[in-house]
Design a protein that fits this description.
The complex is a heterodimer of chains A (392) and B (163). With 392 residues, chain A is α/β, with parallel strands linked by helices. Chain A has 14 helices and twelve strands. In chain A, helix 7 links the parallel strand 3 and strand 4. The longest helix of chain B has 13 residues. The chains are: A alpha/beta (392), B alpha+beta (163).
Chain lengths: 392, 163
């Protein structure tokens, strides 16, 4: 018998499974569950995008693309980024098309982290940062963001986390799971601190289009002197409802992207070409733009409804300004996040994700996705309200 | 807020059972504003009623819905209005629309069974003054009704929990 424990990489063994996955295992054993726990759009991929993919298959365009992605797509990505954030990137040398935002995050971390380098990760945040940092040999250092600060990264918290070993700061805004965003004045303050250091930024802007409240998303790379020290990550999954297509990108200064391309070239070769053809349409079609705007306005209405519903039922709910999650506090119930979620799913068959899946600082909160139909949402809210009455 | 009217209508089209408070939250206005807008829409005859979207055949397996294409002769002065109004008065008739193209009126009827549809067409419609011809089409299965897919939530293929 092989003792796998002796064989498998220590680094990999030490990484924990995502808390979301653990909760999924519980939910999967139950029937008639109303889920509010999915981190992907309920909308289907806009038809124009799907049609383009079908066409590319019908005409047999199924070869490898260049390592960094199809040139036309890289051009569209640069045009799109310029429009969205005002930053200009060179399609030939400053963008790599990746297998989802996830690969882009992995590449950005791996290209920067040496053994023992500290990577600052604001928390609560998406589950992948710390494990990917550890796999790269770095040390993930959480910076807690708080409800009182609208889950923003404050200059004070950042300053006190910086040490001589700090190599990277990850900026996961708009944030999954809190819905927190960083407005212009707030990123300015972060930039001020970073400018005088050698710290690099990884700005994960996958939810950039899903920013509500009038003001658009501000990329920290667009601020003075920040472009050269920022790796920007974005993708098609969220705004374009293309989760299963697995397509994203990483953009940044040429010397960084050149090194990133090596990892991508050897590990991935190139991103799926069918998805790439479809993605060109995603970025260039006016029809798709209308579809995206429609989805964003639907999310916005649901967001407001969810915030009101939770506050009305006595769960303090921060008003999120990005992504498609609300992050109500369940502290008033006296239950831990995990207890709350387990009891809720057992008693009412409603699945929400414990805040602790996104870092220890998520304790006392749950993540609720509003990427669901209104009827689904209002039914679930009714059940949660019943649950709260019953556990009083 | 400009355009509150079209936003309220958009929300009500999808789900007319939301409360004024819920709609107000969604739009970032007060419940009183939503209530006033809906009252105005009703007073102006833009909203003419609220009804459920029903999977009729699931409720009653023998129920039959048919779409009848009618050719009619329009009347002086009244045009198609007089005959359309007469047809609309029948309880079985769910909708009457004047159409462009190969026929004049599209009439949707819902009856308890096939025999009743046949009787309605033969005894009431076809014999009506001004009706030139009828062509009756039965609905076999519904896939989408007033924007709602049938069955409603069945096509959510997302896993229960995901990042």
């Amino acid at each position: 018998m092989i003792n796998y424990d002796n064989i498998l990489s220590e680094r990999v063994k030490n990484v924990q499974f995502s808390g979301i996955r653990k909760f999924f295992d519980i939910a999967a054993t139950m029937d008639n569950v109303i889920s509010l726990s999915v981190g992907e759009p309920d909308f289907k991929t806009p038809w124009a995008i799907r049609r383009k993919a079908i066409l590319s298959l019908e005409t047999g365009h199924t070869r490898y693309s260049s390592n960094s992605g199809m040139e036309e797509l890289r051009h569209e990505i640069c045009k799109y980024t310029q429009n969205l954030t005002g930053i200009g990137y060179e399609p030939k040398s400053e963008v790599v098309v990746t297998v989802g935002g996830s690969e882009a995050i992995d590449l950005a971390i791996r290209v920067l982290a040496n053994n023992g380098d500290e990577v600052l990760v604001p928390e609560p945040s998406f589950v992948c940062y710390a494990p990917l940092v550890e796999l790269a040999g770095g040390v993930a250092v959480p910076i807690v963001t708080r409800r009182e600060d609208s889950f923003k990264l404050t200059p004070e918290a950042l300053k006190s986390a910086i040490t001589p070993k700090t190599k990277v700061l990850i900026l996961p805004f708009p944030n999954n799971p809190t819905g927190g965003v960083m407005r212009r004045g707030e990123v300015e303050k972060i930039a001020e601190i970073i400018r005088g250091t050698n710290i690099m930024l990884i700005s994960d802007e996958i939810y950039a289009e899903l920013t509500y409240g009038g003001e658009k998303h501000v990329s920290i790379a667009s601020l003075d002197g920040m472009r050269e020290r920022t790796i920007v990550i974005n993708g098609f999954s969220k705004a374009f409802a293309m989760t299963g297509w697995r397509l994203g990108w990483v953009a940044g200064p040429e010397p960084v992207i050149t090194q990133i391309l090596k990892i991508h070239q050897y590990a991935i070769m190139c991103s799926p070409t069918t998805s790439q053809y479809a993605a060109i349409t995603a970025l260039s079609s006016p029809e798709v733009r209308r579809d995206v705007d429609f989805m964003v306005s639907e999310y916005d209405m649901r967001r407001r409804l969810c915030v009101k519903s939770f506050n009305d039922m006595g769960l303090d709910c921060f008003n999120p300004e990005g992504a498609f999650y609300v992050f109500p506090s369940i502290k008033s119930t006296g239950l831990s996040s995990e207890e709350f979620c387990e009891r809720l799913i057992k008693a009412k068959r409603v699945a929400v994700v414990p805040g602790t899946a996104f870092g220890k600082s998520g304790e006392g909160f749950v993540r609720v996705s509003y990427a669901y139909s209104l009827k689904h949402l209002t039914d679930a809210m009714t059940r949660i309200e019943e649950f709260l009455r019953e556990i009083k | 807020m400009d355009n509150i009217r079209s936003k309220v209508l958009h929300i009500l089209r999808g789900n007319a059972r939301l409360t004024d408070e819920q709609i107000a939250a969604m739009l970032g206005v007060t419940a009183a504003e939503v209530g006033a807008e809906i009252s105005a829409l009703e007073a102006e005859g833009i909203i003419i009623g609220f009804s459920a979207i029903i999977n009729e055949e699931k409720h009653d397996r023998s129920a039959v819905t048919a779409v009848i294409e009618l050719k009619v002769s329009p009347q002086i002065e009244n045009g198609y209005g007089a005959i359309a109004g007469k047809i609309a008065q029948n309880r079985e008739v769910m909708s009457v629309q004047l159409m462009s193209g190969g026929y004049d009126l599209a009439v949707t009827v819902k009856c308890d069974n096939f025999r009743d549809v046949a009787a309605f067409v033969a005894d009431r419609l076809a014999v009506m003054d001004g009706v030139l011809s009828t062509a009756t089409h039965f609905i076999l299965q519904r896939f989408k009704e007033k924007g709602a897919l049938f069955p409603s939530d069945a096509d959510d293929e997302r896993s229960l929990v995901s990042p």
